[in-house]
Amino acid sequence: MGIIIKAENLGKKYIIGHQRRERYITLRDIVMHKMLGIGQRILHPLSPNKEAVTLEEFWALKDINFEIEQGDRVGIIGRNGAGKSTLLKILSRITEPTTGKVRLKGRVASLLEVGTGFHPELTGRENIYLNGAILGMAGAEIKRKFDDIVAFAEVEKFLDTPVKHYSSGMYVRLAFAVAAHLEPEILIVDEVLAVGDAQFQKKCLGKMEEVGSEGRTVLLVSHNMAAIQSLCDRVILLNHGSVVNDGNPDEVIQAYTSLLSEISSRPLEDRNDRKGNGKVRFTAVGFQNTNGEPCSVALSGQNLQIVCTYRCLTPIKDGKTMFSIAIETLTGEKLLLFRNDYTGNLFDEIPIEGMLICTVPRLPLIPGIYRITICAENTQDVMDLVFHAAELQVTEGDYFGTGRVKNPKFGPFLAEHTWEILGAPLRRDVHD
Amino acid sequence: MTEIIIEAGKGSKEYFKDLWRYHELFYFLAWRDILVRYKQTTIGIAWSVIRPLLTMIVFTVVFNKIAKLPSNGIPYPLLVYSAMLPWQFFANSFAESSNSLIMNSHMISKVYFPRIIIPTTTLIVSLVDFLISLLILSGLMVWYSYLPGWHILSLPIFLLFTALFSLGAGLWISALNVKYRDFRYVIPFILQFGLYISPVGFSSNAVPSQWHLLYSLNPMVGVINGFRWAILGWNVHLNWQELIFSCVMAFFVLFTGIRFFRKTEKTFADIL
C-alpha cells in the first residue's frame, strides 16, 4: 500500500480586519483609505505613514505534516477553530495553502456539506444530476447509478417534485444518497453525519464503512467521537492549527478529552499572559445560572451569571474601580462588552477577596464557543487584564420561549422583538 | 493514477485539463440556470421579448423621429433591432455574470471546480434570449419585406466575437465584484454608458469620421457594425479597419480577463 496523501509544511494564514465583520473589502474602503493617507501626508508631512485599518494575521493552520496510506480511514478531531475545516478545504482544493505542499494520488471527492448546489425549484431527478455533476461525477456515471441513488434515498414517489416541497429528512437523504455513490480514491467528509434521523445516520455510517473496506481512503471530520471510533483506524488531533497527536483512535480521543478539560480547568491564577499592575488579580472565572448552580454549557436565552473570583493586595477604597467583561468569537470578532460603570453598579469599597458576579438576563448569543476577556481598572491604570480568561460554550436554547427557534445562524445575536399587522389579529394557538 | 499537487502560490498546472474534466458541470449549470429562469418567472420568455422590442420602439422614436439621424434607406426599427441583438446579449451576460459568483458562493466555498465555469455559463442563458430575439427579428424583416443577402452566413462569426468579448468583460466584472463588493453599483452605470457610446440607436455613419478610431476602441462598435452588415447586407458599409481594431480590443479584454480571473479565483473561497 502506497502513500496516497502527503502534506508537508502546510500552513494557512488569514488576515483579520478589526472592527469589521465582513471578510470582503469594498472599493469605497480602499478609496477612503487612500484619501485618508493622502490627507494625513498633507497635514503631517513628516510623520510616518500610519495604517488606518489595523489588520491582524491569524494562522488557521501552521506547519502541518502527515502521510496517509491508501485504504486508511482517518478521523480529524479538535476544538472549534482548531483548523479542521481549513485543512479539509485545502485538501479538497477549495482554498489555497499559504505555505507548504500536498500531494494527492487519485481522484478526490469532498463532501463538506450535503446537497451542495441543490436548487429548490428543481425536481429530485434534476437535482440528482446537478449535484452529481457538482461533486465531479460524469453524466454517464450518474445515469448508471441513478436507480441505486433513488433507492438509497427512498424518494421514488417524489422524483418529479421540486425539492422545495421535500421534508428536511427527505432532502438530506437525497443529498447524501448522491454523495454516497461517489467512487473516488479519496473521500473527504466534514461533519455530515450531524444531520438526518438516527436510522438514516446508521445507514450512512454503514455506507461509509463499505467505502472504506473497498480500499478507499477516507478522511472524516466529526465531533461525534462514537462515529470516529467506529469508522476510523487512525485519528489526527489538531489544536491551534497544529497536529498535536496522531495515531491510534482510542489514544488520540483520550488525548482530546483531556485537552478539553485541561484548558477549561487551567487555573487562571497561574496564568502569566496577563497585563496590569496586579493590585487586583482574578483567580478564576466560571459560569452559573441564577440559582447558583454552575453550568459548563450555557443555553441561548438562559439567565447567565459570569462569576469572577479575585484577590487584592489591599482593600481598595477609592471607589474608582471598574470591571469589564468582553465577549468575542474564537476568531477575535468583538461581540459584547459588559461594564459595571455602564450599568451604574459601582462599588465604594472592594473587599480584599471576593466573588464578582455579572448577571446577563436572557443570554442573547447563538450557539457557539466564545472567548471571555476580563479586566479590572481604575481611571489611571489597568490592574488586571486577562485575554481569553475562559471559554463560554453556548448551545441551542429556546431564547424566544416559543419552542420555534432551533438553531439560528444569521448573525451572532438574538433579540427580543414582536410583530403585528395593523388591524389584523394574531393567531392565538401559537405554542400551547 | 492521477497525481494532484497543491502548492502555496502556484495554480494548478493542469487547469485546462481540469476544465475539460468538469465540462459536464458546465452543461449542467447552464441547464440549471435556463430551467430555473423559465420555471421561476412565468413571464421569463415574455420578458426577453418585450424588453428589446420596447427599447427598439423608444430608440426609433428618439433617434429617427426626433433627432432625425440618417439610416441609409434601411427601416429604422431594423437598424435598431439588428444592433439590439448583440447589445442585449452582451448586457445580459455582463449583468448576470457580475452576480454569478456571489449567487453561487455556497458552491464555491464547499466544492472544488474551475471557478471560471460559473461566469461562463451565463453566456448560455444569454444565448437563449438571443435566439428568441433573433426569431423576432426575422418576424420584423418579413414585416418590412427586407431580405438578408449572403452576408447573413457570417452571423455566427460575429456572434462568436460577441460571446468572446462578453466573456472577457464578464470575467473581469465577476472577479472584481467578489473582490470589491460595492462594484455592483457601478455595473448599471457601465451598461447605460455603454449603450450610448455603442451604435445601438444610431448608425455608425452618424459619427464624425475624425472620431472613428477612438470610437472603435469600444469592441461593441465592431460587433454591432458586423451584425448590421450581416443582417442588413449591402446597405451597410463595413469598415474593416474599425472591425479589426475592435477585434483586437475584444481579445485584449478576454485575455486580461482570463488572467485576472485566474489570479483572483484562488482567494474566492476565502472572501466569499
Automatic annotation (TrEMBL), chain A:
The lineage of its organism: Bacteria, Pseudomonadati, Planctomycetota, Candidatus Brocadiia, Candidatus Brocadiales. Signal peptide: none annotated. GO terms for cellular component: membrane. It comes from Candidatus Brocadia sapporoensis. GO terms for molecular function: ABC-type transporter activity; ATP binding; ATP hydrolysis activity. Residues 43-265 form the ABC transporter domain. InterPro entries: AAA+_ATPase, ABC_transporter-like_ATP-bd, ABC_transpr_TagH-like, Bact_Polysacc_Export_ATP-bd, P-loop_NTPase, Wzt_C. This is ABC transporter ATP-binding protein. Keywords: ATP-binding, Nucleotide-binding, Transport. It holds the Pfam family ABC_tran. Belongs to the ABC transporter superfamily.
From TrEMBL, chain B:
This is Transport permease protein. It comes from the Bacteria. It is a multi-pass membrane protein. One of its GO terms (biological process) is lipopolysaccharide transport. Residues 43-264 form the ABC transmembrane type-2 domain. The chain crosses the membrane at residues 42-62, 74-95, 116-144, 150-173, 185-207, 243-261. The lineage of its organism: Bacteria, Pseudomonadati, Planctomycetota, Candidatus Brocadiia, Candidatus Brocadiales. It is found in: Cell inner membrane; Cell membrane. One of its GO terms (cellular component) is plasma membrane. Its main location: membrane. Pfam families: ABC2_membrane. It comes from Candidatus Brocadia sapporoensis. Keywords: Cell inner membrane, Cell membrane, Membrane, Transmembrane, Transmembrane helix, Transport. Belongs to the ABC-2 integral membrane protein family. GO terms for molecular function: ABC-type transporter activity. InterPro entries: ABC2_TM, ABC2_TM_bact-type.
